[in-house]
Design brief:
Layout (H helix, E strand, L loop, with lengths): L2 E2 L15 E3 L3 H6 L4 E5 L3 H13 L3 E5 L2 H7 L7 E5 L7 H11 L4 E6 L4 H9 L4 E4 L2 E2 H17 L7 H4 L1 E2 L5 E3 L4 H18 L2 H4 L3 E6 L2 E7 H8 L9 H6 L10 H10 L3 H4 L1 E2 L3 E3 L4 H10 L4 E6 L2 E7 H13 L3
Parallel strand pairs: 3-4, 3-5, 5-6, 6-7, 10-11, 14-15
Antiparallel strand pairs: 1-8, 2-4, 9-16, 11-12, 12-13, 15-16
Length: 331
Amino acid sequence: MAAVGADSAMRKGTHCAPFTIHNDDTKEAFMERKIHVLIADDEGGFRETLTKILQHKDVVVSQAVNAEQTLDSLQYVVPDVILLDMRMPGLSGEDILPRIRAMQPGVAVILLTGHGEEISARKARADGAFDYLCKPCGVDILVARIHDAVRIGRNGLAVEKSVGEIMIPIEQYTTVQALSTIREGIERLKIASESFISSGLVMDSGHRAILVFDGEALAGVLTMRNLIQAICPSYLDEDSYDVNHAVRFSHWFWDGLFSLQVERLAGMRVGDIMNPRPPVVDVSANLTHVAHLLCAENRRRVAVEHAGRIVGVVREQELFHEVSRLMLGRS
């Protein structure tokens, strides 16, 4: 995938004049409501490369070489999106972001930085930036976020539920300590399941996993798959020709082995077979962040945190219910 954001020898003072539009037939372009992007960056090579890429995507592009030029250009025309470099000579992109938002609140600003930091990203969000991307940034990501900004700008920002609104509260989830035995964990899960059934909560809050804590800290998750894997003889874990060859007829003779393995499993510690600690998100996190974590880390659930304490869980099922609600128009 191509990326933009390489260093350039071209600096402030290049040929680019204030509010220079780089596209043919600009009058017709504006009439057709093509996307208009203002690139505000002191690196001439970056501006020119990105301009060519966006023009190829049928985008109208204008350029500014510094913060002052960026603010001045907004007196002449209102772009759909500003790609704003965080660090420029003189005033920085971070400095002028609030002024841009005050002058043109309808313009989406995507900050670009080669020195991304969480505290800086959080400030940018608080100041009204649409996104905060780190250089070098893949072209597909940048173009996709430009289109996202335009769609939201023209259609309005959808009101979405937060993680805290769809999570299963921790009080409704079975929890055990890592030093507990598997027998104790299964007993806790059985009691919780019976409680859900008797209270009619099984459809909304039923689950088949246990959150595992080490004291107050979340340590992992015990799932049915962990139990099933632990029941299988350990020598079967080795996927090799020698093992597969040796046991290719052995399964006919495994009568009674299941009970023996369950008996062995009962006394093991939960921490010995559990999955690692799931990803943790803040209670105010958005649902796309959760979806990304589930897919990127191949997980079925994330833990939800508030003020340093685990307060709930969001599973695949909760996201599916939200997909269904939004797609089918259900409350």
